[in-house]
Amino acid sequence: MGVATGKANRFDAIVVGTGITGGWAAKELCERGLETLVLERGRDVRHVEDYPTADKAPWELPYGDELTLEDKRRMPVQSRVGWAVKQSTKHWFVDDTEHPYIEEKPFDWIRGYQVGGRSLTWGRQCYRWSDLDFEANAKDGFGVDWPIRYRDIAPWYDHVEAFIGISGQAEGLAHWPDGNFLPPMQLNCLEASLKERWRTRYPDRTLTIGRAANLTRPHQGRGQCLNRDLCMRGCPHGAYFSSNSSTLPAAAQTGRMTLAPDSIVTSLIWDERAGKATGVTVIDARTKETREYFARVIFLNASTLGTTSILLDSTSKRFPDGFGNDSGELGRNLMDHPSGAAFGLSEEFGDRYYSGRRPNGICIPRFRNVTEQRKDYVRGFYLAGYATRGGFWGPVHDVPLMGRELKASLSKPGPWYLRMWGFGECLPYRENRVTLNRERRDAWGLPLLSIACEYRENEARMTEDLKASAAEMLEAGGLKYVQAFGEGSTPGSAIHEMGTARMGRDPKTSVLNAHNQVHAAPNVFVTDGACMTSSACQNPSFTYMALTARAAAHAVAELKRGHL
Amino acid sequence: MSTIGRRRALEALASLPVSGGLLACTPSPKHPAPSPQPGAPDGPGAVAPERRPGWAPTLFSPEQALSVEDVTEQLIPETDTPGARRAGVAELIESLVRDVFEEQERSVFLAGIAQLNEMARETTGRAFPACTPEEQRSVLEKVAAATAAQLAKNEGAQNAGTLEPVARFWLRMRDLTIYGFAQSKLGATLAFAYDPVPGDYQGCVPLESSDKTWAL
Hints:
The complex is a heterodimer of chains A (564) and B (216).
Chain A: E1 10-16, H1 20-31, E2 36-39, H2 69-74, E3 102-103, H3 131-134, H4 136-140, H5 150-164, H6 189-201, E4 208-209, H7 243-253, E5 257-260, E6 263-271, E7 276-284, E8 290-300, H8 304-312, E9 339-345, E10 352-355, E11 362-364, E12 381-389, H9 393-397, H10 403-410, E13 416-424, E14 433-441, E15 447-452, H11 457-476, E16 480-485, E17 517-518, E18 521-526, H12 541-560
Parallel strand pairs in A: 1-2, 1-8, 2-5, 3-15, 8-18
Antiparallel strand pairs in A: 4-11, 6-7, 7-8, 9-13, 9-16, 11-12, 12-13, 14-15, 17-18
Helix pairs in contact in A: 1-7, 1-12, 5-12
Chain B: H1 3-14, H2 62-75, H3 89-99, H4 103-124, H5 133-154, H6 165-182, H7 185-191, E1 202-206
Helix pairs in contact in B: 2-3, 2-6, 3-6, 4-5, 4-6, 5-6
């Protein structure tokens, strides 16, 4: 969908990226009356039509859905998350050989360069932040104060929920706020029993069903989840939220969206005379021709590091160190979520099973450093997991078992077990940063991103407590063979990378203001993960979407007031 | 199951990735067929010429292919439902050995097949595929016993690398066959409970004695 020069390259707004926030920016800006150009660096992916593996039976997938050596050669970084990248999903992840970057320290940069981005493959878990999170930087002094509080974003969580549909159970926790939920998915036998046991043993901890962007009843024209647990392939029923199933169709329906795939935004165009950004430069992903597009408002939603790469490479006399980088904080304060895991086996409920494959698990909201302060670390983590029976690991490891006896044993489900994992908050450290290496360039001539990020003492101590707490809870719940594991996760591996263009009150220490506008260029908005001032421990996409909807409303209001 | 086996099983389970699906039957691979690796030399008691594997191998020699196919069927035989041979599990295993295994894993696997056939020839004078089913079962029981003994000895060392090729072959064949069978069309739909579109999720239902494990 090439857009020529002349009037055809002028719009009211430009949105860069079609992932989970780009789709929202497109929808909100279009619905509020703006003619919007939506640029995506990757190929088009139309809902349902372009989900090649959505209905494949297991025997229709090559290699048992495992990646081949050739796949891994092309995707050495993406294949680090082997649980996500399979034959049935590999087409949603980048070819690392085409999109190299520099790991000054280990960093798993997991990316999806197609229309929909990682909204196709996300985990769909949605948890609101509270002021426990927004006030954290101010209270313990790490990073800078968020320029907003829960009351600023609460109506926008409501707004996003109303459109995307989140199923869940209200629990009444002030620091893990409830939303307006669709009916919750069911807990299974083991999970329900642990909920009860932990209620008495740990009164300050709650086990709840995951709050997931999977529909438990039809919603906004999309179908209810049919419990196949194949979300990452793309859902033919539209039963989970993605840009492809939800926001992009809504934007298209207004008639005001122009969607341009295969369009790599390389930099913002800064007009020295006007003192504002007036558009973007694009390189065609296939032909490598360059084009320019112009708009009054620009939304950067190219994902955390995609957006910051564009900002860093948008230099001018006004911004010698990257667009809007008066503070020196652009590229800095990169965060992800350190993780750990645990496991336990049950000897109960042998006469119980489940039916269906629930694409959602349990959640134990943060319980550390909520009311009492620990001495060994600040902030907190939350736990997630699921119980199941089977897999065939029992018979597999019963070395002499074979023949009729083996076959018979496979046909009966194995014991129940619970897998748990947790995500911890990462503090904002200035030293965790990205820069551009202009000596090394990719096939489109773009400088490579160089990432220097590591977890430090607070993260290490928190992770130890995460594992120990999980193991203790499993033991207390009556599980056997309890183990905790995870020897220090690699930054990036939670796929929640955020920061590098943070919001703040003071232009001297932040890149963006309270409405996600670049302090020095208020017609440029950054609403993807790059804007984050702290990381909390919750899965971040829901918060990104709320910030995006809020910023888009502000952008349109400011345009109408003649301020942009 | 022995305590050691159970502990190993739990360690393996605990460290599985979250959605640790492993294998499925593959249709014929869209892959140019490389010349097969040299198989065990034709010696006395070679495979009867009329026996063929259930697919056209692209890596294994006929003897290797039949050895793998026969082992899968010994592991999961035809009963009132199809076994691993009819389910095509060996063809899937070959695709994994050819394109998914690292070179080192591949050579250990092939060495394991060779060692299996050596053991068959020692007791029967014939290659493994030329043995009767009872003879094959007896050879595999010896392999399993030797594997269990080696594992028990290694337990402190936690070092699978010290296992003999046939022991490592046996362990790999067990997990590849089991998971491959569960993901095959005949296995999943006939030997297990298979429901591609469940509809709702019920978290706690009675398990009747006639209920089977879910295939997925």
